[in-house]
């Protein structure tokens, strides 16, 4: 007998001991009890022992019908991640035609669930309402698979395409929160106090506490309405927010440039514009070299024609621009400036939407 051999026997203690001595796989038929001495040896040698119902003949038949898991398993199965696009999943399942597929978390490598082919039929994608954006480059991953129901925004209309008619609420105000508040009031919806506070904060942030050229009388009206509902003083709250926002200055350069970054498709070019509102730009400008290095890296990785960082000083009512990318000189000229790696200060410029993007669009031929 060799280790690993299969021995099938009934209630025969001596035969069981022989099997245990050579570390064989022991199958005891007839539901017979295992001798304690045999069980001790098997446990010590980590040897499999199976007690089976029926007689020896039936056990032999069943062993012949058995197959090792390694014989039937697929060591390179088709697996999907929760973030995979539905269109990619459908394409692969059509080619493989299995009934079920594991869904695996890429970080933990743990199975997160199972995907059945039947789950894919009649799937029309997630329903989405786009708020405060309407460009593909600013939307969530997989926007192509979603069903867009509505757009609520105050920016220029971008490149989003929909499969059918949608309701678009786009108004020339300083904040999308203003539009949301108007919609709630139009429908007599009683906004909770904490939601009023959040919407008020959004209006104050977007309008730079009513100092941005994008600010309208409607923004002020909705802000005063919300302030009355949540018991906040808009000016006081606004400047507390600005002071807290200045902490962004201490972020690493790669995080700083992405803190409030928006990408745009303008004609055949891609552009990105980031903005940080600070009390004083002097501290940030001492880090200019490391910021420009990260901006250059982002331009290359995302194939940008230009990247602009706006460091907006609320009290001086102006913005210091840093520009990188192949079209940096063209963009500087759009602001009647000669390109300078040190950047330049633009008095009175506070708004990315109204004072930066239109000039960038014209310069890039959008």
Describe the protein's architecture and organization.
With 366 residues, the chain is an alpha/beta fold. It folds into 4 domains: 6-66, Udp-n-acetylmuramoylalanyl-d-glutamate--2,6- Diaminopimelate Ligase, Chain: A, domain 1 (3-Layer(aba) Sandwich); 72-120, CBS-domain, CATH 3.10.580; 178-248, Alpha-Beta Complex (inorganic pyrophosphatase (n-terminal core)); 251-363, Diaminopimelate Epimerase, Chain A, domain 1, CATH 3.10.310. It has helices at residues 13-21, 36-44, 56-65, 69-72, 86-96, 176-186, 193-206, 217-230, 234-245, 253-256, 282-285, 288-302, 328-334, 352-363; strands at residues 6-9, 25-28, 49-51, 100-104, 111-116, 127-131, 147-153, 167-170, 261-266, 269-278, 306-313, 318-324, 344-347. It has a 5-stranded mixed beta sheet. Strands 1-2-3 form a 3-stranded parallel beta sheet, with helices on both faces. Strand 9 and strand 10 form a beta hairpin. The protein is elongated and about 100 Å long.
